[in-house]
Amino acid sequence: MACYLLGIDNGGTLSKAALFDLAGREIAVSSRKAVMYTPKPGHYERDSDGMWADTAASIREVLEKSGVNPADIAAVACTGFGNGLFLTDKQGKPVRRAISSMDSRARSYVEKWQAHGEDAQARPKTMQSLWAGQPNALLAWLKDHEPEIMKKAGWVLLCKDYIRFKLTGEIQAELTDMSATSLMDLRTCTYDQELFDLWGISEMIGLMPPIVQTAEVCGRITKQAAAETRLKAGTPVAGGLFDVDACGLASGLVDENQLGMVAGTWGHNQFVSTVP
Description:
The chain is of the alpha+beta class. Helix content is 33%, strand content 24%. The protein has ten helices and 17 strands. Strands 3-2-1-5-15 form a five-stranded mixed sheet. A hairpin with a 4-residue loop joins strand 10 (184-185) and strand 11. The radius of gyration is 19 Å and the shape is globular. The protein starts with a strand and ends in a 6-residue tail after the last strand. 40% of the residues are buried.
């Protein structure tokens, strides 16, 4: 009987895997330190393949530490840092190094949108404050500064969605992650062409993957991923969560009576509200 759950997290500090039983007790955990590249001031990048290699190594080590039979793992799910940008071709191969959420290269674009009113115009749909590490700003920057890269681009992915692709071979975008990108109308939970037009990246809506739900089974461990991680091929993989949302749920934020405070690569305070 499958009686364990595997969680995977890629934040700004670590690539981590942790195994839990169905009562939520931690059985084993393993991690690798995240490697950040800073080719220019304000540019923070990750090697996508290196991040996957660290993730796979952490999973293998968790299985070794725990002694658990991979066949007893009921499901796998990922979290990861939100925003940033993992740009791949149509086959899922990275076309450049991934960009971290800490990146500030597109700051001037955000300042322009704030000054000219695009920020206020988008807010009823996005319900987000603009900042430089969001995909809308990074895509606008890449369009102007790396047009040859954009010609190769097939998909816009976020951190955990890239790792889920490596596990399942399926290209998808999970709802909670995409909700923070200023590319969606949160009232309909769909990509919005008017937003893409507003940011000057109209054509890039064609790079957006289909949206999946957090608890939805979005694929299964492939034979290739099984060989790299030692997980059992065919194990279900769920959509997963934006790490900020995962922190909120893990802290017990289920109604309007609590405040959650998290200190990590990003520090954030959060609470549940019934009103945007």
